[in-house]
Amino acid sequence: MMLAQAGFPAEMGGVTLAHYLLVSVLMFAIGLIGFLTRRNLIVMFLCTELMFQAAGIALVAFSRFHLNMTGQTFVIFVLTVAAAEAAMALALVVLLFRKRESLDADEWQEMKG
Amino acid sequence: VAEIINPYVLYAMLALGAVGVAIALPRRGVSWQVLGAILGATAIGAILLTMALKTPGQIPNLYFYVFALVAVGGALRVITHPKPVYSALYFILTVIATAGLFLILSAEFMAFALIIVYAGAILITYLFVIMLATQAPTEDDAEVLTEYDTTAREPIMATLSGFVLIAALTTLMLRGVPSLEKPAPVTQQLVERMPGKVERFLRNEKLLQPGEKVAIVDGVAQINATSKQITLAGADGKTRTIAWPEGLSMDNPERIGWSLLADHPGTIEIAGVILLMAMLGAVVLSRKQVQLDEDAKARMAAGLQKSDKLSTEEVSA
């Protein structure tokens, strides 16, 4: 499972695919925990960005391991979606803040239905 | 994974990390936070250290451990810091460390795109919104920490589920496909379609005589990556064939460019449309509606009738 591949940019010196996947897993779980525990709407969205980031690490590591550029291309589209999501989500957050003067997610509990 | 880390050490450290993160999450009575942060950081650090001890030749990938530690530590701080502004700043730290990881993976284009798009654009928007959407500090209390920022919701259950997810995923990695087929070595087929790049490379290497160009027969550049030969045509029409020079290959941005525009041309158009829609949506959503009182409405109407325009109930700011 070594990432080192003859003929492609540089020797990886002992780092394997699993190293990167482990970092990605840790980061994704941290983002998940943050999304579940924090009550500030903005920080919750920051945590989703953290999860996007973790997925990006995994995709680029796989792309490097398989020497296939599609992984990195996919990360570009992940970035696009993250940017679009940030624009929309933050506009919604501003809207919600104007209604209740608070960023607490629990303020909107009645939306549970 | 068994080759890079002892599974029992991994599970023990994950349990320790879970306890640390659960304590470190913001809550009333902040005194325990520091202990939790130290505990969580030690656990994560120990995982990375055990990985470092298990794999030989640590010096070349020292940077991997540095960047990984900074990225995960920054991520921990994003979710534990009670002030949203600091959370956003720590997220920028995580983004930069991730860009470092991408550089080690020789994905230069992605590293710089990440810094430009995330640290440069998205996070600045976040910072602006954080500043727009916080209560103004009162005179006697400059540092307002709202209740919903200092109290976490269900910290123990959330941490438990998060670390169970980590354990499940790492177990899958332990049992998963032990070895994948090694990919075929990269061929230089795409270079065949880039005579301009070949000419530039040859000129830099002083292999190209003045007036010479890559020969093009029937619209096909005479570059053969399989037999490793390049045919050049001089100004007088004479041709000569040279061997493939050392170091002529595509770099990372060129590969991504080909992949984007040759393999996924439709997707990139759709991505553009999504971004445009998001921009329009954001403008429409955050438009502020100013409610005018009767007096102002009457004045507005009078002013508009004079200039022969439709009267509106509200103006958008």
Summarize this structure briefly.
The complex is a heterodimer of chains A (113) and B (317). By secondary structure, chain A is mainly alpha-helical.
Task: Break the fold down into its secondary structure elements and pairings.
The complex is a heterodimer of chains A (113) and B (317).
Chain A: H1 17-37, H2 41-66, H3 70-100
Helix pairs in contact in A: 1-2, 2-3
Chain B: H1 7-24, H2 33-54, H3 62-80, H4 84-104, H5 108-132, H6 147-150, H7 155-175, H8 195-204, E1 213-214, E2 216-217, E3 220-221, E4 223-224, E5 229-233, E6 239-243, H9 252-263, H10 265-285, E7 289-290, H11 294-306, E8 315-316
Antiparallel strand pairs in B: 1-5, 2-3, 4-5, 5-6, 7-8
Care to describe what's here?
The complex is a heterodimer of chains A (113) and B (317). Chain A is mainly alpha-helical and 113 residues long. Chain A contains three helices and no strands. In chain A, α1 packs antiparallel against α2. Chain A is elongated. The termini of chain A are far apart. In chain A, 56% of the residues are buried. The N terminus of chain A is likely disordered. Chain B contains eleven helices and eight strands. In chain B, α4 runs antiparallel to α5. The interface between A and B is large, with 84 and 100 residues.
